[in-house]
Amino acid sequence: MLSDLAQTKPEEATAILAGFSARAMEEMVLSGSGAEDAAFYRREPFLSLYRRSLEEGFNNGGAGYVRDTLIAMRPWDLDLDAIACPVQVLFGAGDLTHSPDHGETLAGRIPGATRIVFPDAGGALLWTHARKILESVTS
What we know:
The chain is mostly helical. The chain is 55% helix and 7% strand. It has two domains: 2-73, no CATH class; 80-138, no CATH class. It has helices at 2-8, 10-18, 22-32, 35-42, 46-57, 63-73, 104-109, 125-128, 130-138, and strands at 88-92, 114-118. The longest helix is centred in the middle third of the chain and has 12 residues, at 46-57. The chain is globular, with a radius of gyration of 17 Å. It starts with a helix and ends with a helix.
């Protein structure tokens, strides 16, 4: 619903997103994540650092979060066929929130793109598999 609003009625999507607080964002992420990701997010020191980041990010009423989310949910007006550099699309198999097909459609739209799905990861891939990600993009 929110994705549709972002495209058809961005002012309504903005109002919904502007109603979020740091605490509401934390609760949404934790409740919408798979069990493995939620357990990772609740572990220290991640949880304390995450909460501090959310507080800082929502200090100005969440304007940056609202803008970033609307940009992510609306068409990017980017010619994917024109991308000529190597592209890797990385996902965790247990990711329940970022892409229903774990980036398969996106990778298929970019010439020469490769897609890697980590079977032992979820949406917290960036934090749980940072070394593997860095190795994959620097090789």
